[in-house]
Amino acid sequence: MARINSRQVEAFRAMMLTGSVTEAAKLIAVTQPAVSRLLRDFQALLKMKLFERRGSGLVPTAAATALYMEVERSFVGLERITAAAEEIRSRRTGTLRIAALPALSNGYLPRLAGGFLKERPNLNLAFFGVISPIVIDWVLNHQCDIGFAEVPIAHSGLPCVRLPAPARVAILPAGHRLAAKETLQPRDFEGETFVSLTAGSTGRHLIDQAFNRDDVRRVLRVETSLSEIMCGLVSSGLGVAICDPFTAQEFANRGVVARHFLPRIDFEFAAVFPPQRSPSPVALDLVEAMRQALSEMNAPAPIAATRETSATKRSGSSR
């Protein structure tokens, strides 16, 4: 026994939608005789009359109307599949799981991700702010689609993309005597109470190296692994510090003043992806959006007028 084929169903649906063999033929891009043949074969296979001739046209029967409701439900399902495929092609659907170190997750990256999602209304986001070792662990175990962690990356097997590295800045309590200068150097910090990064971190090593090179003595009273804590302590008036520019900018109106620091010490980080699979297209889109934003990023407002550069250093902090 012959079976119903999809073209017969398409012809029937097109006829129900347009009410005309001519228009139905245009809708499914075949000739009028082809539509007539498909409808005739469809009725024969179903053993029911679907259309009655009235004048020069065809009018659907009650059976055709009832059948059309079932057909339309099937087509709606197919159209949803087609729409979903288009969303996937255009990288606007699904859920993107991000883990990012605190320096990025405390303001900068959520704002960028929010704009990214506005352009992709069907994309959902799961966002986690955790220290770099946890970022690496979650990406390594496929708990996240993308991570942003401080360089150097502890696990060499993770695919990663280095991103443009901004310079660290000096941060001071509002009203501090050093705020009168646009650019600060190690000798300016002689005898100052200093909030340090945790001992053993790459950033701590590079910052200490800059001060030790000029034989500058600081009063090291506090150390912390988180730049938010560092900025909070500085805003209290306790002391001064060298900080990543992202967190410094978040505290710009909260009692913290940022200034250029020389020699330049870059804040380096990378996007990391789960091993043994290709990065998701939408994750790569986010990395590209971030690369562009970082390339265009201006320095915090209080130090925007000064553009000094020096030899680029490797870095690490806010772990």
Count of beta strands = 13
What fraction of the residues are assigned to beta strands by DSSP? 15-25%
**Fraction in helix:** 40-55%
| H/E series | HHHEEHEHHEHEEEEEHEHEHEEH
Strand line-up of the largest beta sheet:
4-3-5-13-6
The chain-level structural class is alpha/beta
Describe the structure.
This protein is an alpha/beta fold and about 325 residues long. About 40% of the residues lie in helices and about 20% in strands. It has helices spanning about 5-20, 20-30, 30-45, 60-90, 100-105, 110-120, 130-140, 200-215, 225-235, 245-250, 280-295, and strands at about 50-55, 55-60, 95-100, 125-130, 145-150, 160, 170-175, 185, 195, 220-225, 240-245, 255-260, 270. The strands form four sheets. It has a five-stranded mixed β-sheet with strand order 4-3-5-13-6, sandwiched between helices. Strands 8-12-7-11 form a four-stranded mixed β-sheet. Helix 1 crosses helix 3, helix 2 crosses helix 3 (about 30-45) and helix 6 (about 110-120) crosses helix 11. The protein is rod-shaped and about 100 Å long. The model is unreliable at about 300-319 (pLDDT under 50).
Compact description:
The protein contains 11 helices and 13 strands.
Write the layout of secondary structure elements.
Layout: H1 6-18, H2 21-28, H3 32-46, E1 51-54, E2 57-60, H4 62-89, E3 94-100, H5 102-105, H6 108-118, E4 123-129, H7 132-140, E5 146-150, E6 160-162, E7 169-173, E8 183-184, E9 193-197, H8 202-213, E10 219-224, H9 227-235, E11 241-243, H10 245-250, E12 256-261, E13 269-272, H11 281-296
Parallel strand pairs: 3-4, 3-5, 8-12, 9-10
Antiparallel strand pairs: 1-2, 5-13, 6-13, 7-11, 7-12
